[in-house]
Amino acid sequence: MVKKVAIQGIRGAFHEEAAVQFFNEQIDIVPALTFDELIQSVIDNNSNLGIMAIENSISGTIHTNLELIRNSELSIIGETYIRIQQNFAIHPDAKLENIRKVKSHFMALNQCRKYFRQFPDIALVESKDTALSMREIADETLLDIGAIGSMTAIEHYGLQLIDASIETNKNNYTRFVILSKKSENNTEINKASLSIVLPHKAGSLSKVLSLISFYGFDLTKIESTPILGKPWSYRFYIDIKFNDKEIFDNIITSLKPLVEEIKVLGIFTDGMQSFNQIHMSYAN
Questions:
Q1: Nearest to 43 by CA among 180, 183, 193
Q2: Which of 129, 101, 124 is closest to 112 using CA atoms?
Q3: Run of H or E residues at 249
Q4: At the top level of CATH, which class does the domain 3-84+172-184+272-283 belong to?
Q5: pLDDT tens, 144-171?
């Protein structure tokens, strides 16, 4: 059976590129306009799985998405990384000298402002989505407007590529997590994402970190976010890598007396291999 995978955005979004890379098989893309709709699509069984951006190497963690996952019934069962390559495209019947505006999501525009200094007559205009900007050009035959987005979107909507990889910072990567109603349970799982709330006691964080170190786990990420409605209280999001699932279960049991709240957001296979492959191929 072909998997139905919910993405944020429409066909051609970077979420689609990440999904295709992770599953490496035929999948049905289920578009969702917002991350909330993505989560709900999986919960309501309109999709088998979801894929959600969680962290970018330039702009950092998307904390609202971590909160969505924590408050949902879903589990993280995998992760993958892609390099965000921004590309400049126009309608196939358009000419570059006639382009007066370029539309895209504000983050894509910000990543490409240096490139467009060579086109002082082109105004950069914010839109809701990179792929949506490209679809509008194709659907409405816009001959004086260009767009920035993925190569997948350019190919899907039949646009004319003007220039590829126009982003200023080439080391721009995004981490995506795979979401499911069922937890992952294979022999290759070696990473976990946790949500922890600590008591307001001296050394509470130190005790947690010491326990993780004692078990020999690799702490790959730790961040704190304010807890809404509780001034000066914070939630910690932690990623750890381990070699033995049974030892991981033991550390969760050992952590419970040290914290006010703990939730395992997911147990999955570390996706750094996808990052290393992309980074090495680009570097070469």
A1: 180
A2: 124
A3: helix 245-255
A4: alpha beta
A5: 999 999 999 999 999 999 999 999 999 9
Q: Comparing C-alpha atoms, which of 160, 11, 176 is closest to residue 84? A: 176
Residue 207 burial (C-beta neighbours within 10 Å; 0-12, 13-18, 19+)? middle
| pTM for the structure as a whole | 0.91
The residue count of the chain comes to 284
Positions of the chain with pLDDT lower than 50, given as ranges = none
User: Max Cα separation, the chain?
Assistant: 67
CA distance 196 to 29: 33
DSSP string, 98-142: G--EEEEEHHHHHHHTTGGGG-TTPEEEEES-HHHHHHHHHHHT-
What is the structure's pLDDT at 239? Answer: 97
Residue 178's DSSP bridge partners are 51, 78
Question: Which CATH number is 191-268's, of 3.40.50.300, 3.30.70.260, 3.30.950.10, 3.40.50.1820?
Answer: 3.30.70.260
Q: Give the DSSP letter of residue 257.
A: G
Q: Which fold has domain 87-163?
A: D-Maltodextrin-Binding Protein; domain 2 (3.40.190)
Structure tokens at 280: 């090495």
% of the chain surpassing 90 pLDDT: 85
